[in-house]
Amino acid sequence: VKQAGRNGVAFFDPEMEAAIRQRHQLQRDLAHAIEAGELRLYLQPQVDVRGRVVGAEALVRWQRADGTLVPPGAFIPLAEETGLILPLGDWVLQQATQLLRQWQGDAALAALRLSVNVSARQFRDPGFGERVQQALAQQGVAPGRLELEITESVFLEDLDHARATLQALDALGVSLALDDFGTGYSSLAYLAELPFDTIKIDQRFVARLGQHSRQDEAIITTIIALGRKLRMQVLAEGVETEQQENYLLSHGCHLLQGFRYGRPMPLEQFEALVHAQPRD
Ligand code: C2E
Ligand code: CA
Ligand code: CA
Ligand code: CA
């Protein structure tokens, strides 16, 4: 926050100035990283009630020239503020659809669904639906193999516009997931009318399972029941313990994701994991 100086000129304290300079540096580095191919997609497995891997969430990592891996929390918010999320999001979409094409040649991988995160800014961009369609068509990938994870924040500004975009994406045949469910501004009334295929229970609720919190258990069981009633797939994120798994499965959760089944990992490692599981 700026402070007005005596004659109305804004000044910054040195610490703040350093922080701003660092931000600008990060912004330049990130713009360069996208062009220089320093971004990587890590994959985190999603499993069904039998523990079989049925899909993956793609999570971006920034591998800097010195080899250090920057987590998305350190650059996605900045990318959203600066608009760099648009080229970054396009890159993710290109990578994901290319990967789905590669997987078509492998029986075990061809059945998987791949989820990508779409930020609100990307979702609101007028050309978004078209770019999704083009990326799929270019790679010759069945749209249903791709899932777009969208958070409730897209409904904040203009619900009518968001609804229209979702319906257009649904008509393309891509799968739609509502990410971080339970933390935002969802109203039950619109959840019921929007074409989501999957709801993802936010990991905050899952993390508190097993601490005998009646409230968190009530929220989770209610979300699962709601999703099932609406004929959506319910996926719980952040599953780490057997106890959490048991609770979720006994209450009808369809899909699970979390460190218990694998951390986000490089592609080769993910593919090896899938190949190691017994065939049906
Ligand atoms: P998210 O979409 O909610 O992703 C799930 C986050 O939870 C990931 O963090 C994942 O590593 C972490 N996680 C998964 N299982 C567990 C678990 O069992 N325990 C705990 N404690 N954590 C778990 P990550 O990879 O650091 O990503 C953070 C956020 O960055 C994501 O949250 C997503 O909002 C954003 N993000 C990541 N990749 C992209 C991207 O390609 N595009 C956009 N727009 N956002 C992205
Ligand atoms: Ca997500
Ligand atoms: Ca659908
Ligand atoms: Ca999430």
Automatic annotation (TrEMBL):
Lineage top rank: taxon: Bacteria
Q: Where is the EAL domain?
A: 23-278
- List the transmembrane segments: none
Name of this chain's protein: Putative signaling protein
Portion held of the full protein? 650 to 929 of 931
